[in-house]
Design goal:
The chain is mainly alpha-helical and about 140 residues long. The protein has one domain. About 90% of the residues lie in helices and about 0% in strands. The protein is built from three helices and no strands. It has helices at about 1-15, 20-105, 110-145. Helix 2 runs antiparallel to helix 3. Keywords: Coiled coil.
């Protein structure tokens, strides 16, 4: 039995205990590696954050452009709607003029009535031609926009 104890003692002596200082060095090395990897991950995340921030800014500017375009489209639509309304008025005025001319041809008016009617018709014709020119200019502007 003595030999068994002696061998056990030798085995215990051969196994060297790890000094505490080397364990703390291993922990420091491990924590340093962990800190470095965390720092890299933080850098990657912050880079992704900046990229997302730039994308959001780009999208916000697109939204602003779309809002401005929508407002412009609404303004153009209102102008076009006004132009259509004026065109309808012009058409009704032309119909009135055609009726007046027909009545004048039929001779239902006296000479003084014809003169007054002719003066009124010329005034309306001038207004119609001016309004037509204005409408053409508005439509051209709308087409360009």
């Amino acid at each position: 039995m003595f030999i068994f104890r002696h061998n056990k003692y030798k085995f215990a002596q051969q196994k060297k205990p790890v000094p505490k200082s080397s364990l703390s060095q291993q922990k420091v090395a491990t924590s340093t590696v962990t800190i470095a990897s965390l720092s890299r991950k933080i850098a990657e995340i912050s880079e992704q954050y900046e990229q997302q921030k730039q994308k959001i800014a780009g999208l916000e500017s697109k939204v602003e452009d779309l809002k401005n375009g929508l407002e412009t489209s609404e303004d153009n639509f209102k102008k076009l709607k006004g132009a259509v309304y004026e065109l309808r008025e012009l058409k009704s005025s032309v119909q009135d003029l055609k009726g007046d001319v027909k009545i004048m041809k039929d001779g239902a008016y006296s000479t003084s009535d014809r003169e007054r009617s002719m003066d009124g018709m010329w005034d309306r014709i001038e207004k119609l031609s001016k309004a037509t020119d204005d409408l053409k200019a508005d439509v051209e502007k709308l087409k360009r926009n």
